[in-house]
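SAMPLE LOG
Freezer: B-3
Tube label: C17
Construct: single chain, 120 aa
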Amino acid sequence: MSEAETLTAQVQAIDRQVAHLWMVRTFLKHCDEAEDDEDLRDIVRDIYDFILAVGPVDEVDDPAAYVKMAKKKLRRLRRACDLYVEIQPEVSGHTNFVMAARSLQIATEAIAEILDRSAS
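STRUCTURE (predicted):
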């Protein structure tokens, strides 16, 4: 597989995880608990920042630039993930919140693993 094909495959793999990030973000953004919790609102913003930075996969002209941007924004996504996992039990023990934490962790870890495989 050429480097360009590898980068394109990484972009597509990250985009599959971005779909999960979007669903977690949407759930947290619209939950009643977010109205009064600044940490939750920060988490929502940080997840959205990652999604917005990489942009829609259909508009990717330069897979190397996409991967570079994903790497740049990964730290902020990890920070949001770690914070949510930490505060989730205090926010709510409801299954929806527990599963959102698991989904966010799984997607964040998957993106990190994909980016670890990149050569650039």
